[in-house]
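Morning!

As promised:
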Amino acid sequence: MKVSLSWLKDYVTIDVDVIKLAEALTMAGLEVDGLVDRYAYLDRVVVGRIVEIAPRSHAETLSLCRVDVGNGIKPVVCGATNIKEGDLVPIALPGAQLPSGETIDAGRIRGQASEGMLCSEAELALGMDSSGILLLPETAKPGLGVAVALSLSDTIIEFDLTPNRSDCLSIIGIAREVAAILKTPLRYPRVKLPPGETPIEELCSVTIDAPDHCPRYAARVVTDVNVGPSPFWLQDRLYSVGLRTINNVVDVTNFVLMEMGQPLHAFDFDRLAEHRIVVKTAQEGQAFTTLDGVERTFGSDMLMICDGKGPVALAGIMGGLESEIEDQTTRVLIESAYFNPITTRRTAKRLGLNTESSHRFERGVDPVGVRRALDRAAQLMVELAGGKLAEGVIDVYPRPIPERVIELSVKRTNRLLGTRLSQDDVGAYLKSVELDVEPLDEDRLRVVPPTFRMDITRPEDLMEEVARLRGYDQIPTTHPVSHVVARKPDKKLRVRDRLWQLLAGCGFSEIVTYSFIRRDACDQLLLHDQDPRRRMVSILNPLTEDQGVMRSSLLPGLLATMYRNSKQGNENLKIFELGKVFLYTTPDELPEEIEMISGLWTGARHVKAWHFKETKVDFYDIKGVVEAVLAGLNIAGVRFAPLTGTDFPYLRSGYAAQIQVGNERLGAVGELSGEVLRNFGLNQVAYCFDLNFDRLVDHVSEEKRTKALSRFPATTRDMALILSNSIEAQALLDFVEAMGQVLVEGVEIFDIYTGSPIPEGKKSIGLRFTYRSSERSLTDSEVNNIHETITREVLKKFSARLRPE
Amino acid sequence: MKQEFEKVEQEALEAIKGISDPTGLKTLKARYVGRKGVVTALLRKISGLPPEEKPETGRFANEVKKRIEDAFAKALQALEADRGEVTADTLDVTLPGRPLARGRVHPITQITKAICEVFQRLGFEIVEGPDVEWDYYNFEALNIPRDHPARDMHDTFYISENIVLRTHTSPIQIRVMESQSPPVRIIAPGKSYRVDSDISHTPMFFQVEGLMVQENISFGDLKGVLTTFAHQIFDEETSLRFRPSFFPFTEPSAEIDIRCVICRGAGCRVCSHTGWLEVLGAGMVHPAVFEMVGYDTDRYTGFAFGMGIERIAMLKYGIEDIRKFYENDLRFLEQF
């Protein structure tokens, strides 16, 4: 909300500079967002002395003036007739922007150079006279800024108010806070109504059919008004807070709105059918054109102001086009009401309307202030529009807002805040913002908050008032005294920490992508129709279609990241993401959230450098990473096997493996299918792993047991086999392990070879066996015996033969 | 014979000292141990000695030759080392080493951990909750009923009428308090979502929420804990400013500014020339929230606080555009 300092000073004495004031208000909970010099728009408007006016012929309406602007003489073409040589006038220099929005340029008018514009007071928004150039006092010096020459100074204070402080949505509301903080007196405007003429009851009636939506509705009627422009002081006040001037009647309602925070509405009384007001809810589907010229359709929970025939205003939000004040209006009905905040908010939200009026009703206006604002507006209308007041007031108040009485314990206040305030201190702070305070006993106070403080309903609200008025900086900083109990962090957190270390150690960088992706990401990944990842969670109001659903896989994020990086020339990527995916369950349950760990490697195995030629990453590189990570997490019994089923259609068939522990599948690793890459706009080979983190955590063992180290030497023997291409290495290793030879310490595959001289359909595999005993040194013959036994069994089992030396 | 060798060695060693350029040294070396050098010539003479003297003299002669050669090599090396030149038997140690790929943990993860660790040292326990959350936990149980203007502070993504993407990690407070009696000391990091996207907002962001509930916890204690936090995450010189604010689930509520870490309060672009940076929201848990979870409001008090992790990371690392965190440009990630 914007507040003019000079307007504020009408109600409260301010004896500190505005920067100090702003800081004090911020520290009391009314955050000042900015301080703006109200007359900054006059920065390029200076005092000029007319040195010469070139005579003009009768046919011409413009004359060429030469104007001294302090640092030189400027030619200016001007049409005004009220100026003479020697006059001091405001001149807008090139670059100046006038309140109308017009920017002044140096240019040529009718062939004459013109380097500025002489301005009327209306053109500078300093008055209403537009008939001639504003003449400045003799004391003004050429070149001086006009704002300085006219001693114009005002600061606009911009507040970022919190939603609870509806009482501060007015100049007086802010003034009240200023008075409390600066401890200076507050001056409310004096409202004095002239005697009324025709009794209002003879003119009109008000009926409230929906008292829950409209607890109070008050009205006055002003007759014999002359609708016309407002006096300058009123226009100036409205300008200062960013409002437009319409006419004297509407301007008064807006002035009172800003001054007191009570939204008012002025109806053309003679356009209200049957001269009556009925407050009721709309009929479903009822249409009505609001002041802004838009036809709107209503629901049955929306509140309407109607006349004898139909709707004339959308209660608390916007008036109707049909009953607005026009130049020929002579009788005005002023509405001042208290509309239910929730009703107003629902309606405004549904219609997408946010007006000065709805903003205040939504947050709650002062139910008692309704009358004061009505009287204030009536008084000003009589004064400024030459109207006559109808005798009396209509005030229908079917649901009085009850008085709130709160008991406050000073002891509890001190306990919550960590202070040692006396009962008197607490009472004084509360009284300073117009709360009614009486001691009940040694500890307790009986507090009645004023009706404009709708936010104060319970003792803690009062404690906050005390704290903020005392100043949070005056509350001693302490440290809590507590029971020292330590809980071990969740296993998931520990595994995550380890995973970050392991993957970073493997050279992978973590990425974090948005949890929402495009709906067709499942198609891009080629997921089949029954894939659970197609059960996506949709966002009703996404920012963009690209962020329309919650992700059910981390791969789209990895691939989008690969795409974005390739556009930046980052061709070599080793990245991973650890995060949740979301699967829709039923409408009455939250989605299933599964944490996944997925990674992508594309481009070079090593970043190219002087040491080695660039080599491309391959399947065994990424598999090695997965093996290292799973081993690092101490997961036992990990197996890699060819893909089965249809869960990984995005991996290239034959170039990917599923990863299992026992019967449970953790995920898969392999090359991404070319089609999927193309679907994401990519054409560089890429490898990925995609693992279910939640399942993985279950298999992580946090126990470690060491084995005794043998003191005896190891011996190795090689076995070079030629066997069918279709036999998987794992089968060989499994078979050897199953033989249970205790002296075999390890088996390693040290060579794989196909091609001449190995026959078609066969491959050669070189195995290196390490033999060791924990009890003695093995003899050559002993080792040879075991090795021969193993060899024989292997040859038999796999129909293999030994490769000739 | 031996004396002759010793004499030549003496001469050679002396001569080396007098040479200061590599070319001169090479010439000199040729004169002694080259094919037509003095030592070579002497060596040839050994063959004319009586057989019983040959082995002994030969050994001695070779030792002398080796010593002279070493002396030349050493001198040459010394000369070249002075000039910083590389020779065949030294490495260019300034060439970059064989690169090992070094992965980075995302800056948001790093800062989240750093923040959580401060509170873990203070005895807070990390808890997590769902990203897709009931409206009840995200709003209503936090004293933000439907149709409350405070909902305007949260531009919410909706999944259905009753299910939202959590707009903060505060719903975790409720889930914890529903399942546990005081004392409670938790810290809840995680993703949050709001319909917002510009240079300082992303539709997804990270928050850390903290909660401490027990007997006799005061606003002063909240000040103490958050001051400790700011001192540990930034530095001991960081001063804090507690300002009254409004959150429906705390009362009194505060916003906490730290002295601008860039200009130290002098005023700069980062702090909009105010000298202060808003980093935290906090307050004493609202009794309405305690009532929702069935805590005894006469007995227990508590405080809650929350902060945006990106904001802290941006200040610590000098990042101006929040969107950089989620673009995942390798050139950005590799700086952490």
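Chain B has a mean pLDDT of 89.

Hope this helps with the figure draft.
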